[in-house]
UniProtKB/TrEMBL annotation:
Pfam families the UniProt entry points to: dnstrm_HI1420 (PF21716)
NCBIfam families cross-referenced by the UniProt entry: dnstrm_HI1420 (TIGR02684)
MF-aspect GO terms: DNA binding
Protein's recorded name: Putative addiction module antidote protein
Alphabetized InterPro entries for the sequence: HI1420 (IPR014057), Lambda_DNA-bd_dom_sf (IPR010982)
Domain of life: Bacteria
The species this protein was found in: Bradyrhizobium hipponense
């Protein structure tokens, strides 16, 4: 019997380009829970302890806020994204084709 282990995207988020692509895909879903969890996955990839130190937030609060059930305040999201070296940009929404 082959042994398997659960897939963890954090293992593959080892550079800025991979992180930006991963988060961009998450943002495109427009699913708040999925986006929050994706930010949490990136945070784990970069190291939650370092992120906590950099943002001034506790590790426990970060784990809770950045889970799929978390509801982080926007200021928390912005602190985390800034610490991760990620910027948000606004773009016009694509027009729907009739």
């Amino acid at each position: 019997m082959a042994k398997t282990r659960p897939f963890d995207a954090a293992e593959y988020l080892d550079n800025s380009e991979a992180i930006a692509a991963y988060l961009s895909e998450a943002f495109e879903t427009r699913d708040a829970g999925f986006i929050t969890e994706a930010i949490g996955t990136v945070a784990r990839a970069r190291g939650m302890s370092a992120l906590a130190k950099d943002t001034g937030l506790s590790r426990e609060n970060l784990y809770k806020a950045l889970s799929s059930e978390g509801h982080p305040e926007f200021s928390t999201v912005m602190k985390v994204l800034s610490s991760l070296g990620v910027e948000l940009h606004a773009a016009p929404k694509a027009a729907k084709v009739a």
